[in-house]
Amino acid sequence: MARSKELTPTLRARICELHDIGWGYRRIQKRYPWIPLSTVRYTIIKEAERRDGVSKPRKGRPKKLTEADKERIIKVIDENPRVT
């Protein structure tokens, strides 16, 4: 199942700004009714982990080959293009 869309950095900043001036989770959620209350709460909690409003990169699939392995393969192919 696919993840839902992320909030834009501008919207995240606005949510955190409203929280900083004293608005509660519910009041912010009423301002933006298309955003679930749990998302508002999670956004405010996770804001401390973000750098300049940018999400941390997600882990991807582990790489099968290291950069050194890739370079070695390319070198072998350059030396002998008929190798499989």
How are the SSEs placed, and which strands pair?
Layout: H1 9-20, H2 25-31, H3 37-46, H4 67-79
Characterise this structure.
This is Transposase Tc1-like domain-containing protein. The structure is a single chain. The protein has a domain of 50 residues. Helix content is 50%, strand content 0%. The chain contains four helices and no strands. The longest helix has 13 residues. The protein is rod-shaped and about 65 Å long. The mean pLDDT is 87.
Span of the ends, CA to CA: 37 Å
Task: Sketch the topology as an H/E string, one letter per element.
Answer: HHHH
Overall strand count: 0
Estimated structural class? mainly alpha
Give the amount of beta strand, in percent.
under 5%
Sum this structure up briefly.
The chain has 84 residues and is mostly helical.
Give the tags:
single chain; 84 residues
